[in-house]
Amino acid sequence: MIQDIAPHKLINQYDPSAVPQPEDYVLCFDSGRVLLKTVETLQLLRVLDFPENCQFVYLFTVDDARFFLLAGETAAPDGCEYVDARTLRGSKLFPKEILFAILTGKHLADWYRDTRFCGRCGKPMTHSLKERAMKCACGYTAYPRIMPAVIVGVKNGDSILLTKYRTGFAYNALIAGFTEIGETAEETVAREVMEEAGIRVKNITYYKTQPWGIANDLLLGFYCDVDGDPGITMDANELKYAAWVKREDIELQPDDFSLTNEMMMMFKTGKIR
Q: Which band of pLDDT confidence, cut at 50, 70 and 90, is reported for residue 37?
């Protein structure tokens, strides 16, 4: 999966004392697009590519490479353009550890963008000097927002329920959805399967989690079994395809980045029964 970058390591502890150096990487985002150099091949920008008066916020380190976020509005340097971060997923333009850094940086950049002002009193927020948090004079403190969502492998003997979204990602997927307030993850599983496929489930079993910076999620993977009638009543507003597919007929996604793909592969190869 995208976060499996060993032997490389993401070091995400906040360091408010970090001072950007010329060779440090800089991430800058606009509506899910990341700013990249477009000379010859796509490349990440560095501090030295920006005017001296630019401000940066420390994000994290991958091995010995430090990443900063461009703070405030600055004209893009010459020879650069914004590229949809989602299109980089299968492009092979960056090694996995760098792509993981870009998507994790997007998650943090979205949070910093959305916490410029206090949600309680409306005043400007400031950076905490002790932890990764935004603070307001009124006493309110905001921490990075992580949204839990479930990925569900619904089993029916030697078949699994595969879906395709009505819009967006074109490849096979599994039932998925966000956890609601006051709801356990297991309750989310049962509700989302019923809403999207009209099926009751049992034997809900946790599998694995995945940070997913594309949508600012923490994905929680579960398998479960059909409980009773396996007839599918598809939610056509969410899906364009939903069907029971035998193990040997499962078509996987074109890369190994997602929890969804790993869960499909585990079932296809018989490691999950």
A: very high
Q: pLDDT tens for residues 57-100?
A: 999 999 999 999 998 777 788 889 999 998 888 778 899 999 99
The pTM for the full model equals: 0.89
How far apart CA 193 and CA 156 sit, in angstroms, is 13
Instruction: Look at residue 208 and give its three-state secondary structure.
Output: strand
Would you say 185 and 220 are in contact if contact means Cβ atoms under 8 Å apart? yes
Scan for tokens 């490479």, then name that residue: 65
| Alpha-carbon gap, residue 100 to 106, rounded angstroms | 10
Task: Please report which helix (H) or strand (E) contains residue 190, including its range.
Answer: helix 185-197
Distances (CA, A) of 140 to 10, 16, 51, 53, 196: 29, 19, 34, 30, 38
Over residues 121-127, the mean pLDDT reads 96
Q: Which residues of 118-154 are buried (b: 16+ CB within 10 A; e: fewer)?
A: beeeeeebebeeeebbbbbeeeeebebeeeebbbbbb
| CA–CA distances in Å: residue 41 to residues 35, 37, 106 | 13, 8, 21
| Residue (of 169, 207, 211, 173) closest to 192 by Cα position | 173
Q: Which amino acid is at 219?
A: L
Name, in order, each residue with C-beta under 8 angstroms of 150's C-beta and a sequence gap of 6 or more.
176, 177, 179, 185, 188, 189, 192, 219, 220, 221, 222
- Contact indicator for 59, 68 with CB cutoff of 8 Å: yes
Residues 231-271 pLDDT 10s: 999 999 999 999 999 999 999 998 889 999 999 999 999 99
